[in-house]
Write a structure and sequence with these properties.
Layout: H1 2-11, H2 18-35, H3 37-57, E1 61-63, E2 66-67, H4 68-98, H5 101-106, H6 112-142, H7 150-173, H8 180-197, H9 209-215, H10 219-231, H11 247-268
Antiparallel strand pairs: 1-2
GO molecular function: ABC-type transporter activity
Membrane topology: Multi-pass membrane protein
Family: Belongs to the ABC-2 integral membrane protein family.
Length: 277
């Protein structure tokens, strides 16, 4: 009896610590993402291709010394963050729910919070990669000047708040898809529509007023506007709807979306498809 008890105690292993579980899950998420060629191309390379094409084709000045590429760089960085967070989260989570991955994970000893930590780390890594590559191309090939001084702080908080808001919204949107096969068809048109009405591909002032109003309800418009304040001279603020960059309002809207997105996640997130009961 004593020998058996001692042997059982010797072979029993303590559960790993929470930080260890988080690191392990984050590593899994990163490996899974970068091993999926389609995800890497669509999420990481599409914004790069758009910047290259639009930067080469639409090479004209919006104002004295201000090129459209400067304007577009701000918008495409915002769109890249949207793709890495909202689109990526909504499609990947819906797919994992549909193929039973979420149900299997929910039945393991792994804390459920580790799943979301892994997703957040993945979004952070992909977002940083997108920003670095886009800035490199913009500077090397199109002569865009990098932010300086306090502009970097503005760039950082707009990117952080925007990525957080879009990640939470993407997790919530994953529950709208009936299954993994329909996720892309559900989310991609929504994301593309936001890009067209939020001042990514066109100057925001050229978009019809009612579309501007719709865009103002979502994070992408405010991210793009925040980034424009970094890449464009202050004189270009006169072209914005309020004749200013509205950085205070940008922070409030993105912060509000973080709170709203979290509440939506708590209310709607499911570990298995609706068809599974």
């Amino acid at each position: 009896m004593t020998t058996t008890t001692t042997s059982s105690a010797a072979t029993a292993r303590p559960l790993p610590s929470l930080p260890t579980v988080y690191r392990s899950r984050a590593s899994v998420e990163l490996k899974e993402f970068f091993r999926q060629r389609e995800s890497v191309v669509f999420t990481l390379m599409l914004p790069v291709l758009l910047l290259v094409v639009f930067g080469a084709v639409l090479d004209y000045e919006l104002a004295d010394g201000v090129s459209f590429t400067q304007y577009f760089t701000a918008g495409i960085i915002a769109a890249g963050i949207l793709g890495a967070s909202l689109q990526n989260m909504a499609i990947s989570i819906a797919t994992e729910r549909s193929d039973g991955t979420l149900k299997s994970l929910a039945g393991t000893p792994m804390p459920k919070s580790a799943y979301f930590v892994g997703k957040v780390v993945q979004v952070l890594a992909v977002t940083v990669a997108i920003i670095v590559v886009l800035l490199f191309i913009a500077v090397v090939f199109y002569g865009i000047e990098l932010p300086s001084g306090a502009d970097w702080l503005t760039f950082a908080w707009v990117a952080a708040l925007g990525a957080a808001a879009c990640t939470l919204l993407g997790i919530a949107l994953s529950s709208l898809a009936k299954n993994g096969r329909s996720a892309s068809a559900t989310v991609t048109p929504f994301a593309l529509l936001l890009q067209f009405i939020s001042g990514v591909f066109f100057q925001f002032e050229q978009i019809p007023t009612w579309m501007q109003t719709v865009a103002a309800f979502f994070p992408l418009k405010w991210m793009a506007q925040g980034f424009r304040s970094v890449f464009l001279p202050d004189v270009m603020a006169a072209a914005e709807p309020a004749d200013s960059w509205e950085l205070g309002r940008t922070a409030l809207v993105l912060g509000a979306w973080c709170i709203a997105g979290l509440l939506l996640c708590v209310a709607t997130f499911r570990w298995q498809d609706r068809s599974a009961g």
